[in-house]
Amino acid sequence: MATAQLLRTFHEAATGFVPSAGAAWRRFEGGLGVGEIVCHGDVGPHNTVYRHGLPVGFIDWDTIRPNHPMVEFGAAAWKYVPLADEASFEASDFGARPALARRLALFAGAYGAHDPDEVRWALHQAKQRSVDEMRYFPVTPAQGAAMLRLVATELEWLDRALDELVAEID
C-alpha cells in the first residue's frame, strides 16, 4: 500500500500551497474551494513510476487541479484497489474478484483514512464527479452516453456494495 502512502505524502506537501491569483487549469475552472488543495487529477497505476516494484512518484500532471484530497483518494482507490463489480473482474486479467473490502481497508489505512463514512463519501464523490471531466474530452454524443452509462452502472454497484466495502475500515 505504498501508493496510498505516497499519495498522502503528496497531499500533505500540497497542503498550504496557494496558487497565484488567476491560475489556469487545463481541465478545471475556478480556484481552491474550502478544504481543497492542488491535486494531481489522474492518479492511477498508469501515472505512477515504480522502482523495484515500489511507487516512487507520479507523472503526467496535465490534469492538475484544485480538489478535495479525499476525493482524489477515492478516485485512486477505484483504480488501485481496484473497485469494480463481478462482471468487470471476470472480463479482466484478475479473473476472479479479489477481497475488495480487505484491499480497500489496507489502502485506506495506508493513506490514513480510518473513518468508514469519510471513505464512503470519497468513493461516491470520486465516481460521481468523474462525469464533470467528460466536458473536456472530444466525444461524440454516443460516446458521452456510453460514458454516462458506465458511471451510472458503477454508482449503482457502489450503492449495493458500499456497506461491504467499508466493513473492514477502522
Overview of this protein structure:
The protein is mostly helical. It has six helices and four strands. It has helices spanning 2-14, 69-80, 86-90, 100-111, 116-129, 141-165; strands at residues 37-39, 48-51, 54-58, 65-67. The strands form two sheets. Strands 1-4 form a two-stranded antiparallel sheet. A hairpin with a 2-residue loop joins strand 2 (48-51) and strand 3. Helix 2 packs across helix 5 and helix 5 (116-129) packs antiparallel against helix 6.
Secondary structure layout plus pairing:
Elements: H1 2-14, E1 37-39, E2 48-51, E3 54-58, E4 65-67, H2 69-80, H3 86-90, H4 100-111, H5 116-129, H6 141-165
Antiparallel strand pairs: 1-4, 2-3
Helical coverage, percent range: 40-55%
Radius of gyration: 16 Å
In the predicted model, the low-confidence regions spanning at least 5 consecutive residues are none
Order of H and E elements = HEEEEHHHHH
* Biggest beta-sheet profile: 2 strands, antiparallel
Outline: globular
Neighbour order of strands in the largest sheet? 1-4
By DSSP (H or I, 4+ residues per run), the number of helices equals: 6
Number-wise, the strands total 4
